[in-house]
Amino acid sequence: MFFNQHRYSGLLTPISYMVDLLVLSLFAYYLPINFQTPLIFYCYLSVSWIILSFKNGFYEVYRYSKVTHILKKIFSQFSIFFLVLYAYMGFFKQPEVSRLAMIQYFTLVFVSISLFKFINHFALLKYRSKVKGNIRRVVIIGRNKKMDQLKNVFNERTEYGYHFLKQFDSKELNFDLESCFRFIVNEKIDEIYCSVSELTNKDLAKFISFSDNNLKTLKFLPDNKNIFAKKLKFEYYDYLPILSLRDIPLHNSINAFLKRSFDIIFSIIVIFGLLIWIGPILALLIVLESKGPVFFIQKRTGFDNKEFYCLKFRSMGINKYSDNIQAGKNDMRVTKIGKFIRRTSIDELPQFYNVLFGNMSVVGPRPHMLKHTDEYASKVDKYMLRHFVKPGITGLAQVKGYRGEIEKDSDIQNRIKFDIFYVENWSFLLDIKIIIQTIVNAISGEEKAY
After folding, report:
1. DSSP 9
2. Cβ proximity of 307 and 370 under 8 Å
């Protein structure tokens, strides 16, 4: 699984961003460039650098990236940055700025950031090769010339950080998909590499379904022209082309960092701006109406299929069915104050503590009870895909009308379709749109908010 074997690898790109921005600011501060408004220049540089980095994919350097790929990124980034740097003098009318100092500034920034980028890349290669850290466990399905070449890449290019465990020969008479799946689960395999030409369409479909439902990364060697009608990600390991079946935006460390930063800021605003005063009032009303704790704490399934304790304001009287039966329409367990806070979704507000602690996100697939996760994982195809990201207080499925009680199979099936769409098509603007729609729905009221 992407985050299991390399827990802190998602921090590498954000740290690189911060180091590079620090370099930009420090050289601008110490060199005699003669700015009239230094603060504006620092902001201009930082914003320009971030925009260029996104556009050029400057930080999209992977474990199998070649030096030529990094050089291309550096050249592309600094070619445009040079123009942006000198455009500053015209945009902000800075006649006293020293041209010589600007050339010195650009040269020092170029050398420092390029040097840091190469040091970082080669240090990670050595770390994987010598320390055996940041490792991904892999298996190969198929035996032919290309698959053998890939096996050699895994075994010989130890700096890539792949731990090859087994190669399954799909042409053997005793080849069995189920035993293959058991091995992958038991050995905690992270990535599966398949030869498209050696598997039937039926077997390929089973591998896709298995990888989706077990949170495994599935990749293909394109040795067959009859490939899937999907948007596939094309990569190179050494000189071998590899196809990834699914590219999840939040597995990009910058996207993950952006989303996590927003979650922290938004949850702090809600906690100190709303919960700090509405919490004591609701606590008093809840305790006065029925005996029991203020908060309802329940185990839910979260990111990477891990359990966590989900917080809510208690909206029901104490009962023994809360972990097994969802609230239904005219449910006798729901208290009077509970009806109000459920209808307005105020009961969900304590989950902002879950967001702050990192168990949840503001937006994402809603976390289900453990019982329902076990039930739906076996009933609904690709159900487990929703656990590739953190669960959310609100989500795309909820604003599209699929919230609350599951009354029929189509309810959960449609909910999962929206969850998977969110996982595969996440964007920051989509999160903002969902949050706005959630607020509108909470004010106007929803049919299934009971």
Report:
1. G
2. yes
The DSSP symbol for 323 reads: T
Contact in structure between 195 and 240 (CB atoms under 8 Å): no
d(CA 372, CA 350): 22
Half-sphere exposure of 315 (CA within 13 A, CB side): 24
DSSP-derived letter for residue 194 is E
Q: Running along the chain, 450 residues long, what does each successive block of 10 average in pLDDT?
A: 47 85 88 75 87 87 84 90 80 68 88 92 88 88 88 90 91 85 93 86 88 88 53 70 77 87 94 91 88 88 91 82 64 80 86 94 93 86 88 92 74 88 90 91 67
pTM comes to: 0.63
Q: Exposed e or buried b for every residue in 5-18, given b needs 16+ CB within 10 A? A: bbeebbebbbebbe
d(CA 200, CA 212): 18
Q: Is the dihedral of CA 299, 388, 134, 222 positive or negative?
A: positive
Q: Which residue has the tokens 């067959």?
A: 224
Helix ranges, 11-161 (H): 12-30, 38-56, 67-91, 99-126, 145-156
3-state SS, residue 410: helix
